[in-house]
Amino acid sequence: MRLPQTPEEIPAQFAAAWMARDAEALAALFVEDADFVNVVGLWWHNRADIQRAHAYGLRVIFDQSTLRAGGIRVRSLGEAYAVVHCRWHLTGQRDPAGKLLGERTAVMVFVAEHRPLGWQVVTAQNTDVIPGSETLGLRSAGAEALNYQKG
Which of 24, 49, 58, 81 has the highest CB neighbour number within 10 Å of its CB? Predict the structure, then answer.
């Protein structure tokens, strides 16, 4: 696999690996000791764990999904580092019973380093966008999206 040659290419290569259900190609975008935090706070600490988690997800949770990148914004941190924000749109996820779920939107942040063969991700975090919400609150039944400005 060819590494991204610019930070802007990272989301497209991530999405291409996702759509191919290729967890190995997805994980290859990350340095060996990378970190990845998913939308519910699961935190993987190396490329092997990132690959294993995505292999499971792409096989069980997202096997019929479509992931597409929306807006991308890159902030350079000198010549060797960059922060890449990308808005994702995900469709085709199914619940544990196989029922189709609604479209999800998320913002993913990649911190990338320029290496001899191209750009690789040092750390990434994925955050779901919950329309009309400001924060989450925990109740006995689980997490609930909250908006304090209603009314």
Answer: 58
Rounded (to 5) percent helix, strand, coil in the chain: 20, 45, 35
Strands (E), the chain: 30-37, 43-44, 66-76, 81-91, 104-115, 118-129, 135-139, 142-146
8 A C-beta contact, residue 55 and residue 61? no
| Residue 151: pLDDT over 80 | no
For residue 136, the cross-strand partners are 145
Which residues on neighbouring strands pair with residue 73, listed in sequence order?
85
Distances (CA, A) of 120 to 22, 97, 104: 17, 36, 26
What pTM value is reported for the model? 0.92
**Residue pair 3/120 in contact by the 8 Å Cβ criterion:** yes
Rounded to whole angstroms, the Cα distance separating 66 from 139 reads 32
What is the topology classification, in CATH, of domain 9-146?
Answer: Nuclear Transport Factor 2; Chain: A, (3.10.450)
Task: State the Cα–Cα distance between residues 146 and 38, nearest whole angstrom.
Answer: 20
Instruction: Give the domain ranges of the chain.
Output: 9-146
pLDDT, tens digit, for every residue of 31-83? Answer: 999 999 999 999 999 999 999 999 999 999 999 999 999 999 999 999 999 99
